[in-house]
Amino acid sequence: MENWIESFQQSINFIEENLAGTLEIEDIAKRTALSPFYYQRMFGALCRMTVGEYIRARRMTCAAQELSAADQKVIDIALKYGYDSPDSFAKAFQRFHGIAPSKAREAGAALRSLMPFRIRISMEGGKMLDYRITEKAPFTVMGIRRRFNSDTSYQEIPKFWDEWSADRKGLKGMFGLCLDTDGKEFDYWIADLYVPWETIPEGCEWTEIPGGLWAQFTCRGPLPDSLQSVNTQIWSEWLPALKGYTLAGNYSLEVYGPSAENPEDCESYIWIPLKKSENKE
Which CATH architecture group holds 4-105? Predict the structure, then answer.
């Protein structure tokens, strides 16, 4: 993860240089040492928004500035920033700014603006992270899965768990498995360990998790807050400072312990696959 600040800033610069063109997550992530799957997770932890939200906000910011500063046609600006019609552009503009594009030209029009991100090192309050790096043999999980988009997964995955809670389909819900599909979407599994001599419940599938090194982080306290807090700390603080290892695979795991009577006593885990870095310091 060496030189992560420079490479991550390069990816943001690439977005800024191509706001009026086609932006694919594969091309953005290519500026870093991260896969599209991992890049989106780190971006969300560092920037507190998804890559898609950032691109839309920056395009709407630039579009408003151009509308208010020059006598350009709305259709021309809509096409410039990737919208097929004035109607779709107007809806997006209204959602972001709260006014129609035509109103942006009026004197005193209230517009919103998101400035380009700049990655800097800053001193934060010291929060301890409990983790260990361990090696595991391959193992198999079985469960139910659903495909999610990175832009909406934080809102939609809890709904998936709520649906499962109503009809557990013979599962204990030991794992939450994120498995990349194409860099833009990923499969999320609610799963248990697969036991070969037991029948797989109806509607469930199975998948094998490769063996290798894992960083295992402990989360203590009520869910989902404790897990989300540690997850943000992993991607925004721990991984950027990691030396001697790089991310591996295209998956990560949430591991849930037994339910506790007191939510403060709840203990869960996040597992991130690693491999030893080829760069020797």
Answer: Orthogonal Bundle (1.10)
